[in-house]
Design brief:
alpha/beta; Rossmann fold; seven-stranded parallel beta sheet; three-stranded antiparallel beta sheet; 7 helices; binds 2-amino-2-deoxy-6-O-phosphono-alpha-D-glucopyranose
């Protein structure tokens, strides 16, 4: 486990974007595992900036996003597919048919998750997985207490996750209660894992996840066992370690 201390959010975003950029330069047809949430937005912004300066090319890259709300189709403004288009895909040259995200519009969870596992397998696995972290230690939508050995599956979101994601939804609009997510097993099979974390509300969970026991109660803690895991955090998120 490697921990990189960044001064602030911009510095964190730049350092993370540098690692992703290095991956794409070394392997232009890399398979990138991508994440949503507020934290990686600055990383995407930095990559877009370098793309606009011709410093990085995504034309051979394949992307596999972590998760999607069950019941939201890709044109819903709160769907993760919509988020990814707005914050990244619409501004760079990842070919449309190289973009993958679980199909939230498919009500058949078994079918949607099996199809996604097959996409990951056919892509040859994930070269670099970008992750944020939930305040309860979730990664993707792998909530506390779930088995580590799961592949893509349907989860019931915890109250704390529903509450923290409420800020993205309009007043009175319900946050979906379920999501399809890549499992911990799939994340652990990624060849490199890169986590970004910022803000003092992440400090306690960062301490528990990476300096406490490895336990399904803190899903991110399993990353202590990953052979190539890098955490890039700002000073607030790393304040307790
Ligand atoms: C959601 C996403 C996670 C993300 C988490 C934290 O639950 N499924 O992938 O890491 O939110 O989001 P934020 O970066 O906004 O704190």
């Amino acid at each position: 486990m490697k921990i990189i201390r960044a001064k602030d959010y911009n510095d964190m975003s730049r350092k993370a974007a540098n690692i992703i950029s290095a991956q794409v330069i070394m392997k232009p047809n890399a398979v990138l595992g991508l994440a949503t949430g507020g934290t990686p937005v600055g990383t995407y912004r930095q990559l877009i900036d370098w793309y606009n300066k011709d410093d990085i090319d995504f034309s051979e890259v394949t992307t596999i996003n972590l998760d999607e709300y069950r019941g939201l189709s890709g044109d819903h403004p709160q769907s993760y597919l919509y988020f990814m288009h707005k914050n990244f895909f619409d501004h760079v040259n990842v070919p449309e048919d190289h973009i993958h995200i679980p199909n939230g519009a498919d009500p058949d969870a078994g079918r949607a998750c099996a199809a996604y596992e097959e996409i990951i397998r056919a892509a040859g696995g994930i070269d670099l997985q970008l992750l944020g972290i939930g305040t309860d230690g979730h990664i993707g939508f792998n909530e506390p207490g779930q088995a580590f050995e799961l592949g893509t599956h349907c989860v019931d979101l915890t109250e704390s996750t529903i509450l923290s994601n409420q800020r993205f939804f309009a007043d009175g609009e319900e946050v979906p209660r379920q999501a399809y997510t890549i499992g911990i097993k799939t994340i652990m099979q990624a060849r490199k894992v890169l986590m970004v974390a910022n803000g003092s509300n992440k400090a306690e969970i960062i301490r528990r996840a990476f300096f406490g026991p490895v336990t399904p109660e803190v899903p991110a803690s399993i990353l202590q066992m990953h052979p190539d895991f890098t955490l890039v955090g700002d000073s607030d998120a790393l304040a307790l370690i």
